[in-house]
Each structure stands twice: as structure tokens, then as C-alpha cells.
Amino acid sequence: MTLLLMLGGLFALILIGVPIAIGLALIGTIAVLSTQGMGYLPNIAMVMFGGAESFPLLAIPMFILAGALMNSSSISRRLFDFASALLGFIRGGLAMVNVGVSMFFSELSGSAVAGVAATAPVLIPAMHKRGYPRPFTAAVTSSSATLAIILPPSVPLILYGVMSQTSIVQLFVAGIVPGLLAGFGMMLLCYYYAWRNGWPVEEIFNLCRLWVTFKDAFWALFLPLIILGGIFGGIVTATEGGGLAVLAALVIGLFIYRDLNWSELYRAIIDGATQTAVVMLLVAGSALVGVYLTEMRIPGQLAAGILALTENKWVILALLNVFFLLIGIFLHSAAAIILVVPVVMPLVLAAGIDPVHFGIIVCLNLAIGQQTPPVASVLITTCAIARADVWQVTRANLGFIAILLTILIIATYVPAVPLALVELFYR
Questions:
Q1: pLDDT, one tens digit for every residue, the chain (427 residues)
Q2: Domain for residue 272, yes or no?
């Protein structure tokens, strides 16, 4: 009941326009003072600072800054040209290009919103010019961008790893297969829509043009090998990989492509700092909630209550899926992970659910939440760029949401899908 009151209070604050981070800190402060007394007030700032003071969390501002730097360069345009040369000869190929470019950019930025900001201004006008309906164009852009939540180096996966004390590298590896399956499923759906609606073939396959665009995009294509190769190869940690991503983006933007000037660099740093502040305020506010939940032993009570009803982990996973789907409709992914994951982890561990497996399940649920109003941060950002009606885009998006739901069910009940690579290389 206490947890429901806290969630209800947070939703009420959000509805009246209070930022989520501020609402979380306010609810946490009231809850802590209600048990610890007013004498605990001087410790509030130290608890919030301690919650955000974590070495793995340094990966978040690094990958956010790397994404902001890439947004300021010509990487998305070069990737679009190469993907068009590679897939443009297939009916509906431009929609497939959209999915492919979004997936690739996910491997660079770790953020769905950053991916939309980088790719949508290039992809949406190109598709609209070739006769694709505006709602469909926005839908495919939004849904494919949201794959950044499970494809490495996903910022939500980093947050989940910190909150659940799970290996971030193993989470990154576990997200590869579900992310690729979802992307290929979206491409097949694009082909079906193109065949049904008679959408055009973009161009005849030209090996010379493919080679030229490949050379032009070579360093953009090489970036994920630098970043993820270093992380998966054990050369750098996930946090150090974020620093490597920033360095690589700077070198490529300033000295190779030479389209990242000092004003763009300044703007990228400001954008990166702003996005980082939002996430870290959420983390700091959650530390207060964590103190209260620990004091009241709510996570243990929740675990005991559900286990008293059923000990079947597949039923428990079904209940948690429904819960996170509902949470994802009303909360941003970072806020949902920070607020809810510490509460349910005792239940997850008691039920014998692999925490890496559960991390992918959580993030897939929240990926669907990024596409379902009223919050739908990625969908709304895409609609703003495309100048499209949110509800028209949501209707066009139903097929892509169905793909994500299918992958969620597969990943939930066939653990080998997310865990096979983890078992092969890390266990």
C-alpha cells in the first residue's frame, strides 16, 4: 500500500507539470522524513550525492556526449547514403534503410531520443519526398530508434546494471540478439507494407555507387567496432568505452570528416550536459526513495507476498511483464528503472530469474512504453520533427509495436535468445 501511495503521489505531481526528477526527490524526502524525523534533514543532500556517486554511472554522460557529438556531424547522412545504395533496389527499401540506419546509430549513441534527433531530420524528408505517408514515416522512424534501449551501448541497460548490481557488459551482450531480431522483424514488416501498398523501388543496384558510399561512410561504420570491440574484448570497461566513444567521435568529426566546428562542439557539450543532468537527478532522487524502501522492508515484503501466491517463475515473469508494460506507459524508461527495479529485484532473485535475462525483459517492456502515449518520449519527439499527429502515427505504429511485443514474449519464455551469447563468452 505504501508503494502504491508513493507511485500515486509521483503520478499526481507529474500530471500537474512537476518534472519527474523533482517529483521523485520530493516524494523521497517526505517519505524519509516521515520515518527518520526532521533531524535527518541535513543528511538529505548527502544521501542524494551518494546515490549518484558511482563509477559505472560515468558511462552515461560519456555515451550521451558521444551521441551529441555524432548528431553534430554528417554521420547520419553518410550512413543513409550507404544504406540506400545497399537496400534501395528492394521494394520499400527506403523504409528498410530507415530501420537499418536507426539500428546502426543505436550502436553509437545508446539513446533512442538522441538517435531520433540525429536520423529523423534526414530520413523523414527523404521518405516523404518519395511518397511514403507521413504517419508511416514517423512510425517506422520512432519504432526503429527505440531499439537503442536494448542494443549496446544502451543507457537504460547501464542504469539497470547499476540499480540491480548486474554486469553491464553481459547486459550489452544479451541485448544483441533480441535487438537484431526486432530490427529484422521491422524490416520484413516494411517489405509487407510496401508490397501491399505498391511503394516504389528506390534505385537499381549499382556496385560502383555502393563502393563510393561505403568509402564515404567508412569511419562511421568503424565506430561501433572501436567502441563495442573494446568493451566486449575486455580491453576497456563500459565506462571507459564511453570515454573512448567521445574520443573517437571528436577525432572523426574534427579531423577526418571536418564538419564539427567549435560552435557545434559547444552546442554538443551543452546538450550532453543537459541530458546528463536529467538522468543524474533521477538517480539522486531515487537514493532517497531507496533509503525509505529499505527502512520499511518493502522489497522483501513484495517478494514474500507474490511468492506466497505462486513460486512458478514463468507466472511471475508474466505478472512483471504486465506491470512494466503499464509503468512504461506513464514513466520514462530511466525513471521506471530507477524507481521500480530495486523494489522488484528481491522477488526476481528469489524466483530464480537470471538478472541479465530480466534486464532485457525490463528494457523491452520500456521500449514499448516509448511508443505508447501519453508519455511516449521517442514517439512524441519523432512526431515533433515529422510534424505529424501523434494519434495518426500511433495507429500506423501498431504493427511495429506488435513486433516488439512478439520479441518480448520470445525473450521472456525462450531465455536462450538473450542469454546464448552471454553463456558462450562470459560464463
A1: 566 676 677 677 767 777 777 777 787 777 777 777 776 667 777 777 776 776 667 777 777 777 777 767 777 778 778 887 887 778 878 888 889 888 887 777 777 777 777 777 778 888 887 788 888 999 999 999 899 888 888 888 988 998 888 988 899 999 999 999 999 999 999 999 888 887 777 667 788 888 988 888 888 888 777 787 887 777 877 778 778 888 888 888 888 888 777 887 888 788 778 777 777 777 777 777 767 766 666 666 666 777 777 778 898 899 889 888 888 887 777 778 877 888 888 888 888 899 999 999 999 999 998 888 766 778 887 888 888 888 888 899 999 999 999 999 999 999 999 999 998 887 6
A2: no
Hey, what's the cell of 90?
A: 528492394
Angstrom distance (rounded) from CA 77 to CA 411: 33
In a domain, 153, yes or no: yes
Q: In the chain, count H helices and then E strands.
A: 23, 0
Asked if 101 and 92 count as a contact pair (C-beta separation under 8 A), the reply is: no
Same domain, 122 and 46: no
70, 268 in Cβ contact below 8 A?
Answer: no
CA 369 and chain centroid, separation = 11
Nearest-angstrom CA–CA distance, 419 and 176 = 10
One domain, residues 157 and 194: yes
Domains: count for the chain = 2
Cell of 306: 507474490
How far apart, in whole angstroms, are the C-alpha atoms of residue 279 and residue 321? 24
* Grid cell 514474449 in the structure block, residue: 409
The residues, any chain, with a CB within 8 Å of residue 154's CB and separated by 6 or more, are 106, 110, 148, 171, 172, 175, 363
How many other C-beta atoms lie within 10 A of the C-beta of residue 261? Answer: 12
Cβ neighbours of residue 112 closer than 8 Å, sequence gap 6 or more: 106, 145, 146, 147, 148, 149, 367, 370, 377, 378
Dump the DSSP string for 311-348: --HHHHHHHHHHHHHHHHHHS-HHHHHHHHHHHHHHHH
Is residue 270 situated within a structural domain?
no
Domain that holds residue 24: 1-53+277-296
Among candidates 73, 78, 99, 97, which has minimal Cα distance to 86? 97
